[in-house]
Design a protein that fits this description.
It comes from Microbacterium tenebrionis. The chain has 408 residues and is α+β, with helices and mostly antiparallel strands. Helices cover 48% and strands 12% of the residues. Helix 4 packs antiparallel against helix 5, helix 7 runs parallel beside helix 9 and helix 9 runs antiparallel to helix 10. The two termini are 30 Å apart.
Length: 408
């Protein structure tokens, strides 16, 4: 587990995960995935906010995995957290998405908050086993913070607020209008039930239906000075949060591909008769079936190896704290963009073509094999993968980085 010192170079993370840590959290995630898998399709069809599912994550300790052990947290590393997201995505990518966003949202404590306030944020988050939802979507008009006394009033609407309606606190980004901090973008943390917050429940995508990603309305919500977590900046260390969420996406896509292949193999093994033109008796012995499985398995293995490398590198960079330079951040950004490209393309293809080895009966609604494709097809549209390919290409050809944003 991590040896954490909040005084070390403005970072609560040191070193990288050892095999014992990875094995521990992998096993915890596998147990939780088994629970989620048992009724994932039924819950997907209900489309309700995943409040009970988040209790399962809390009980397993996954919510507090990244928080420092000295405050009662799991003291784990980012690599462990990303692997947990991947494992859960094999069973229920919606719940895995909420957990991934929670890790990133609460990660702002370590990346962006004043070191003097970090202990209090960690202590409260661990004591309450908070799940951090967000209302940060950068493509929406920004929320407005109007100064009032020692605090602010928050007003506006944000769409695509993952985890907000189901979690314990909401991380929101807003621009200050007036006062000493006029024009500054701030991250604020608000109680889920704060007066003036309304969850619109308008998330109706074909996949990721339990990700609690509906719109949130803020109507003159009181924000105390103590609710302000940090300014939103492009400083290299603080802005590592964006490569972090892209790395989480890569692991979500990888987990979905792994889950789709595992389910497809299960269905293929249980088919008794081969196609009438085949030269074999058992469906699983058909060379066309074996070819597809071999192709998918090999490509998934390659993506998994890359994801593990990127997860380990993220910990190494996070441990640098203030020593993270623009060059170091840029190298990490591109490395993670490469994973985003291959994980997205691989997962969409696997989830789509897996039906080729499972036959017409696997298209029944009761089988639920479509859940994997619906989930990855929905989430892979979060930000266009073609722009990630351009991002990598511009770096390789010209050494050019895209401007730092909440997407790069």
């Amino acid at each position: 587990m991590t040896d954490i010192s909040l005084s070390a170079a403005r970072t609560p993370w040191t070193g990288t995960a050892d095999p014992a840590e990875l094995s521990h959290w992998d096993a915890v995630a596998e147990r939780v995935a088994d629970v989620l898998r048992s009724d994932a399709l039924e819950r997907d069809r209900r489309g309700a906010d995943p409040r009970d599912e988040l209790d399962v994550l809390r009980d397993a300790g996954l919510v507090d995995l990244l928080h420092p052990a000295e405050f009662g947290g799991g003291g784990g590393h980012w690599e462990s957290a990303f692997r947990v997201v991947r494992i859960l995505s094999r069973a229920d990518a919606s719940v895995a998405q909420v957990l991934a966003y929670h890790y990133i949202n609460s990660g702002n404590i370590g990346f962006a908050a004043d070191p003097a306030s970090q202990a209090d944020w960690y202590r409260r988050s661990v004591q309450g086993h908070w799940v951090w939802g967000d209302s940060v979507n950068p493509v929406d008009p920004d929320l407005v913070l109007t100064p009032e006394g020692d605090g602010y009033r928050l007003t506006g609407l944000k769409r695509f607020s993952t985890g907000a309606s189901a979690g314990d606190v909401v991380l929101a980004s807003a621009i200050v209008n007036g006062g000493d901090r006029d024009g500054e973008s701030l991250l604020v943390v608000l109680d889920h039930d704060a007066p003036g917050i309304r969850y619109l429940g308008d998330w109706d995508a074909l996949g990721q239906r339990l990700s609690a990603s509906g719109s949130v309305s803020f109507d003159e919500v009181r924000v105390e000075a103590a609710d302000v977590l940090a300014p939103l900046t492009d400083e290299p260390f603080a802005s590592l949060i964006t490569p972090g969420i892209q790395l989480a996406f890569g692991n979500i896509y990888l987990g979905i591909a792994e889950g789709a292949l595992a389910r497809g193999v299960e269905l293929a093994r249980n088919r008794h008769n081969s196609w009438f033109l085949s030269t074999v008796d058992r469906y699983r012995d058909d060379p066309f079936v074996q070819r597809v499985v071999g192709d998918f398995s090999s490509r998934i293995a390659a993506v998994e190896a890359l994801a593990d490398l990127r997860g380990r590198r993220f910990d190494e960079v996070a441990a640098l704290g203030d020593d993270v330079t623009a060059q170091v951040r840029g190298d990490l950004e591109i490395a993670i963009a490469q994973l985003k490209v291959v994980s997205s393309d691989t997962s969409v293809e696997v989830a789509n073509r897996i039906f080729e080895i499972t036959g017409s009966s696997s298209a029944k609604a009761s089988v639920g094999l479509d859940l994997f494709w619906r989930n990855v097809r929905t989430h892979s549209l979060h930000d266009p993968v073609d722009y990630k390919k351009l991002e990598v290409g511009a770096w390789v050809l010209n050494g050019e980085l895209q401007p730092i944003s909440l997407y790069t």
